[in-house]
Amino acid sequence: MTTVRVTVTCSPAHREVLERHLEMPAGCTVRDAVAASGLAAAATLPDPGQASVGIWGRRCGWDQPLREGDRVEIYRGLAVDPKVARRERFRGQGARATGLFARKRPGAKPGY
Fold first, then answer.
1. pLDDT tens digits along 24-40
2. Cys-Cys with 37: which of 8, 14, 85, 110 at CB 3.0–4.6 Å?
């Protein structure tokens, strides 16, 4: 029986990464690897079937077959919408300290 080596990772919290290296039978799917790793329970995901998954940073489906050396990633939901976070950072910095040309060198031409 042929096996494939895969890695299953997830980040349940900021700056925390859980990783499991597995040997799975050839033809296994992402769902099989996540179930065998036990990370869905360890990461306290609300509903593992609803979480997004990917292989090497590219989203895929739960029924995607795995190949030798694949890295399966379980993605958690965003805590804050990125657009809202950017607006809040901008509001906190103020208009003068923002933008591409905020830090000018002394004696530089305008716009540089």
1. 999 899 999 998 988 87
2. 8
The string of pLDDT tens digits covering residues 49-70 is: 667 889 998 999 889 999 999 9
Q: Which residues contact 5 (CB under 8 A, 6 or more apart)?
A: 21, 22, 23, 24, 68, 69
Instruction: Count other C-beta atoms under 10 Å from residue 79's C-beta.
Output: 8
Q: CA separation (Å) from 87 to 82, 84, 92, 98, 102? A: 9, 5, 9, 12, 17
Inter-residue contact 103 to 93 (CB < 8 Å): no
The count of residues in the chain is: 112
* pTM higher than the cut 0.85: no
**CATH class assigned to 3-75:** alpha beta
C-alpha 103: how far from its chain's center? 33
How much is the pLDDT for 48?
A: 56
Q: Where are the domains of the chain?
A: 3-75
Q: For the chain, where are the alpha helices, taking DSSP H only? A: 30-37, 39-42, 82-93
